[in-house]
Glutathione S-transferase
Amino acid sequence: MSTQSNVERTLYGFWLSPYMSQVAHILSESGLPYRYERVSPFQGSTLTPEHLERNPLGKIPSLRDVNGVDIAESHAICRYLAKIYPEVQKFYPIDDPLFCAQVDAKNDFITFSIAGPFFNWFVVSGYFPKAWKLKVDKEAHIYNLFSVLLSKLWLSRLVNGSRMDPFLLGKEPFLPDFQLFYTLELSQMFSELFEIPEMHLFRDDPALQTFYDAMCERPSTREILAAKASELDVTKKELYGGFGAAYLDKHIDRKILDGLFGREV
Ligand SMILES: N[C@@H](CCC(=O)N[C@@H](CS)C(=O)NCC(=O)O)C(=O)O
């Protein structure tokens, strides 16, 4: 595939997204320059015709590469980058099928058992109740506790089954390390933002804390966390302000929620 054209590589999304941060991280550590364009789900911008053209699934991140192609889904983007740009292969070793299978195994485990459930966890226990001011404290708390139970179970299995030296597969980080890091990072931030202490996933685990600290020492991590911090006020305003009207009211049937809880929420 040709990578020649005049298109500027552009990453669409917002910094709160751990998925976008992973792609930004791989680009940054690989020395591939990109332009950032903010597309905020909180403003309904993921479901505009313009964004759906980039990603018909209506999610961020999406990447427009210099050859003009649009790619969506964070890990599909990272794997695409490794196939096109040799400098990305140190994070996703496509030329070493056996090692690449180990990288995939960790990555798939995190996607299915940790990051995916974490997404549901903060949506049900944090995002929707806050943005929509739902009166579901008791139910959100039960979901929260159940999520802690499962997440800790899978996280300890990941830690015990990995080298943690300090990264999952040893001294150097790979794709699953970035996925794990930005999930942990979000867990720390959301536990504060939503005042849900149990949501903090690594405070009590020395191996995960060491992993987290080692990742924080990398210049690309610092760059991304600084970008995220610089956008935080805007993100918070959108979450508590526009999100309900711009996204939830339009795309989620509130009556189903009332039915689910058996009362008006
Ligand atoms: N599996 C996707 C997850 C992306 C995702 O869920 N992004 C969220 C923001 S963090 C989003 O686009 N939400 C808007 C929506 O679902 O409408 C990936 O890895 O890229």
About this structure: The longest strand covers residues 10-13.
